Task: inverse folding
């Protein structure tokens, strides 16, 4: 499935600056249906509610390190629910530990991006997720 | 041109400074709580909170801020596993200084669009932080969510290589 800028995207990060930076990049790529959550816990609620309302999220971009529900736990919640088994999930990290990457891949992450990153890297990642 | 000086980034930079100022106040409070309680969880919490600024700072080209936050995170995480109170007293003092310098830089980012602190050589202070982080690096961690400096991958390329090995 190719990437469509019209897709409904959820950006999850506990730092509002990062949410703005990511949304700014996605906007420059033509994306308009952009939503945000400041932690994995509200994001998980939003994902379920959007699906139940018939307007599901089609792509999740999430930070790893968040206080209530981490990006990894959000990913595990998503993959444990049949409705979201194939929901594309891009993990954003400030530091990448080899072991953590392996854990996230096993949990079903679609790809990883390391802060700081450029719009070019973001686009490359999206192209890999949506070939 | 650095993103700090990019007019298109101005709104994001101003928001970053406001958000960071509130977080720095929280970090100071955590260190004060640690001084009162000697509860190592406060240092661990410090590491988790300063991590929030680190990624955003690097993303807006606030490289000194990003580096200080990264070292502050490493030092506080590692120190939270130490039982050496004399060392922990040094760590706490250095972390107070780190937060103070970060607060000053935060103000200069907002007003002058550069990271600077009058009268302090930021590189020298950074070297001091790296020395302390190095002193603490042999402490094994057991409880925090993310291990620092252990099998750390060196940037996006290393991650991409590992992801390719893992089939992504």
Result:
């Amino acid at each position: 499935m190719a990437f469509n800028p019209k897709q409904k995207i959820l950006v999850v990060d506990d730092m509002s600056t990062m949410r703005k930076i990511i949304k700014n990049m996605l906007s420059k790529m033509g994306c308009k249906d952009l939503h945000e959550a400041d932690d994995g816990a509200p994001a998980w609620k939003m994902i379920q509610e959007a699906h139940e309302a018939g307007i599901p999220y089609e792509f999740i971009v999430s930070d790893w390190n968040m206080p209530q529900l981490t990006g990894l736990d959000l990913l595990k919640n998503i993959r444990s629910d049949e409705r979201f088994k194939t929901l594309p999930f891009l993990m954003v990290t400030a530091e990448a530990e080899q072991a953590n990457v392996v854990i996230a891949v096993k949990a079903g992450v679609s790809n990883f991006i390391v802060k700081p990153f450029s719009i070019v890297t973001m686009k490359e990642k999206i192209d890999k997720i949506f070939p | 041109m650095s993103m700090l000086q990019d007019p298109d980034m101005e709104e994001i930079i101003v928001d970053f400074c406001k958000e960071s100022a509130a977080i720095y106040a929280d970090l100071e409070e955590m260190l004060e709580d640690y001084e009162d309680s000697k509860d190592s969880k406060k240092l661990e919490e410090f590491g988790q909170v300063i991590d929030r600024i680190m990624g955003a700072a690097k993303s807006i080209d606030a490289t000194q801020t990003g580096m200080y936050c990264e070292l502050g995170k490493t030092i506080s995480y590692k120190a939270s596993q130490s039982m050496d109170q004399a060392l922990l007293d040094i760590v706490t003092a250095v972390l107070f200084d780190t937060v103070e310098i970060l607060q000053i830089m935060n103000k200069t980012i907002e007003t002058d669009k550069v990271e600077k602190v009058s009268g302090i050589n930021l590189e020298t202070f950074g070297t001091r932080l790296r020395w302390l982080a190095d002193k603490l690096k042999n402490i094994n961690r057991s409880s925090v969510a993310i291990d620092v400096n252990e099998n750390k991958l060196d940037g996006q390329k290393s991650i991409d290589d590992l992801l390719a090995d893992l089939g992504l």
